[in-house]
Amino acid sequence: MIEINKLHKSYDMGSSSLHVLKGINFCVDDGELVAIMGSSGSGKSTLLNILGMLDSADNGTYDLDKIRIENLDENTAAEYRNKFLGFVFQSFNLINYKNALENVALPLYYQGIPRKVRQKTALSFLEKVGLKDWAAHLPSELSGGQKQRVAIARALASKPKVLLADEPTGALDSNTSIEVMALIQQINNEGKTILVVTHEHDIAKMCKRIVHLKDGIIVEDKKIKQNILKNV
Amino acid sequence: MFNIERWKEIFQSIQKNKLRTILSGTTVSLGILIFIVLFGLGEGLKNSYSDLFLRQANNVLFLYPGKTTKPYGGFKTNRRIEFDNSDISDIRNNFSDRIELINPTIRYGDLIRYKLESYDFSIIAVSPSNQYIEGNVLMKGRYINEKDINNKSKVVVIGRIVARDIFKTEEPIGKFINIGSRTYKVVGVFQDLDGDNQESFLYIPYTTRQQILMGSDKVGNISLTFDEKLGGSGALKLENEIKTFLKKKKSIDPSDPSGIRTRNVADELDRSMQFAGALQIIVAFVGIGTLIAGIIGISNIMVFIVKERTKELGVRKALGAKPSEIIKMILTESIFITSISGFLGMALGITFLNTVDKGLQDYFITRPEVGLSTAFFATIVLIIFGVIAGYIPAKRAAKIKPIVALNDE
């Protein structure tokens, strides 16, 4: 599903430049649940942003579902993000003046899907994350865990090939974290490819594979025995 | 442009962000409202000014005889100059190409009596042309006519104040009043928009006065009207030519400033219109200033709005919004709000001006109004600038990498 080769990325820091990714080679198959680990500054978020086409690499290749991702203009990037990728952020990034249903329906709006269909689809995804009854609530009326589940429903709504989660439990307490991870496991079990960036070992162990990043290179990449959570 | 889905998005954004909407809407409304009110009041001021000066005929030249201050052609200094009937005909003959009406006047005072009461008003012996030159409006009866001049009739036309004081509620037309030792028949009553003072005169035919003065051919002052097409400089030229002509005829030193004096209404009018023009410039200046303040206001708010929405825009981009989609969304929203509130402000301004219309005459403001085209123009200018002001930050926001926008707090 994802294939990257000799990926390099550096940032200009005025006079010097900061080399963040120093040649990453990395493949993800269909249906995997991968944790990308590393301390802060290891380059894990940068890698995820490049995978998410939110940022571009300096060097190296990136194929997503056999499509070469390079030299994207803004419009194509937007289109690919919409079609191929679902994002889950640490800070949820829900639009505060839209209720849960409207937030979930937003990616469908950018696909040009009519309003009625959008709402129906969005509602089915809210149901999937167990928040059907909260459809009309604004984000400010939801708990952290609920917000993240709305965000996951939103990421799934456009039926992406890959779900990218950047510290999805970073802002949640441990019980809620487990709820959210259980949901992620469930979605993964239904066949969705998911990448989770985290610095917490507990969370990483709930995935099927751990990729360890340190100073811009992969130092460890192993399949693990998944810590399967009971569905809450 | 018209995309029902986008409009739904925009309506939601407008509805859910009431403070933002009210803030930017009020700025635009207020800008237009103040512009229109100021502009209207300025117009009102100008109207009052031009009304004041335009009521009288403005193509009028007055000639006054004076005393010489220089000896000339064998005459001593300090000689009193007088006009007579030959001057009237000479002027008429020599300047017939440019002169329209000519009006000799003789002003004097005499005892005015009706029944047992006596009154004190100025009497002026005039020709029929006086009506046009002074801007007298007949209320009743008729004015002095050519027949009166030829017959030297003993008729009098009286001002509104005179009629009110002498006749009270009585009908003045056809009554007889005494001026000095002679009896005159009242044939007309006039009013004059220039005020009570102008309505306190009694006009009799100048030939009648001359006959009373033992067949004198002297006249007091001469007023005349000239072809309006002459314009300011033509009028000045005519004024000087007539002056020179009369000085020569009456053997006055051409450099004597005092033998014959003139007053040119056109010249005065020019000056007052310059003042009105200056007023208009000030009004335009204030109006443009208000508009600029409005433009700056809406620009600031647009920058603030886009800044406030940076994170939201980042989310939208991450979810697949194209940059053009972002720009269109912000622009349509800004056009929508500025248009609605712009035209609202315009309607409010015009309503305000219509409401206060009559109430401001005490403040020297008459008919405060703004041309619909001016109002539309100002509104559209503000809308266009609102769009430009929205476009620049919108474009910048659309260019920000989603990852940067997402990290914006």
What's the short story on this structure?
The complex is a heterodimer of chains A (232) and B (409). By secondary structure, chain A is α/β, with parallel strands linked by helices.
- Identify the CATH architecture of chain A: 3-Layer(aba) Sandwich
The tally of structural domains of chain A comes to 1
User: How large, in whole angstroms, is the Cα Rg of chain A?
Assistant: 17 Å
Please provide the ordered H/E string of secondary-structure elements of chain A: EEEHEEHEHHHEHEHEE
Radius of gyration of chain B: 35 Å
Q: Any idea what the CATH superfamily of chain A is called?
A: P-loop containing nucleotide triphosphate hydrolases
The CATH topology of chain A is Rossmann fold
Provide the low-confidence segments of chain B as ranges: none
- Structural class of chain B, by secondary structure, is alpha+beta
Question: How many strand units of chain A?
Answer: 10
| Overall body shape of chain A | globular
Strand content range of chain A: 25-35%
DSSP helical segment count of chain A: 7
Oligomer category: heterodimer
Number of helices of chain B: 13
- Tell me, rounded to a whole number, the average pLDDT of chain A: 90
The percent range for strand residues of chain B is 15-25%
The geometry of chain B reads as elongated
**Which class of secondary structure composition applies to the elements of chain A?**
alpha/beta
Q: Into which percent range does the helicity of residues of chain B fall?
A: 55-70%
